[in-house]
Specification:
The complex is a heterodimer.
Chain A: E1 4-7, E2 10-13, E3 19-25, E4 31-37, E5 44-51, E6 54-57, E7 65-66, E8 76-78, E9 87-94, E10 103-104, E11 108-112
Parallel strand pairs in A: 2-11
Antiparallel strand pairs in A: 1-3, 3-8, 4-5, 4-9, 5-6, 7-8, 9-10, 9-11
Chain B: E1 3-5, E2 9-13, E3 18-25, E4 32-37, E5 44-49, E6 53-57, E7 60-65, E8 70-75, E9 84-91, E10 97-99, E11 103-108
Parallel strand pairs in B: 2-11
Antiparallel strand pairs in B: 1-3, 3-8, 4-5, 4-9, 6-7, 7-8, 9-10, 9-11
Classes of the chains: A mainly beta, B mainly beta.
């Protein structure tokens, strides 16, 4: 089954404790991205990757890191989480960028206390 | 700046028709997407328009006017399961998606 898998689904952590949210897709997609979704705001892109070893900043990259060492995986790293990073996070992948639908992971609800 | 506007919330009756509007101002245009998102779940793709006109897909249709920076999603024969948020997103000149905040659609029996 074609899918994007994120883990964990829910996470409560403390300020400053490094964490990683994993994302994996099995569709051989080149394009992957991370979004955060907050009430009243649209999805905001954090980072994206056009292919292996190619990553770039989205609209809200501060406080986040990513890596793309292999095509299927695109982990999101919060080196020192802060309460303003409490949010719902989605990973997405697509075949390319031109007119192709994005497939989203199930979401990770992160709370930083 | 880049901006996508859609109503925050709409209410409609089961079996009726509803139109959800989306207006946009972006740097360039490479297509407009509509996604459906049920509460607490991931967005799922509904439609893509890149040329002016109406695209029909079952009970759902999407319309685009590039000159007016305007699109709408039309849902017919509404069912309770259509209660969800509907997200409008525009692909800009760099093929990056700019997202609206979404329209929460409430269906009443």
């Amino acid at each position: 089954e074609a899918q994007v898998t994120q883990n964990p689904r829910y996470l409560i952590t403390v300020t400053g404790k490094k964490l990683t949210v994993t994302c994996s897709q099995n569709m051989n997609h080149e394009y992957m991205s991370w979004y955060r979704q907050d009430p009243g705001l649209g999805l905001r892109q954090i980072y994206y990757s056009m292919n292996v070893e190619v990553t770039d900043k989205g609209d809200v990259p501060e406080g986040y890191k990513v890596s793309r060492k292999e095509k299927r995986n695109f982990p999101l790293i919060l080196e020192s989480p802060s309460p303003n990073q409490t949010s719902l996070y989605f990973c997405a992948s697509s075949k390319g960028v031109e007119g192709t639908e994005a497939f989203f992971g199930q979401g990770t609800r992160l709370t930083v206390v | 700046g880049q901006n996508i506007d859609q109503p925050t919330e709409m209410t409609a009756t089961e079996g009726a028709i509803v139109q959800i509007n989306c207006t946009y101002q972006t740097s360039g245009f490479n297509g407009l997407f509509w996604y459906q998102q049920h509460a607490g779940e991931a967005p799922t793709f509904l439609s893509y328009n890149v040329l002016d006109g109406l695209e029909e897909k079952g009970r759902f249709s999407s319309f685009l006017s590039r000159s007016k920076g305007y699109s709408y999603l039309l849902l017919k024969e509404l069912q309770m399961k259509d209660s969800a948020s509907y997200l409008c997103a525009v692909s800009d000149s760099n093929y990056q998606l700019i997202w609206g905040a979404g329209t929460k659609l409430i269906i009443k029996p």
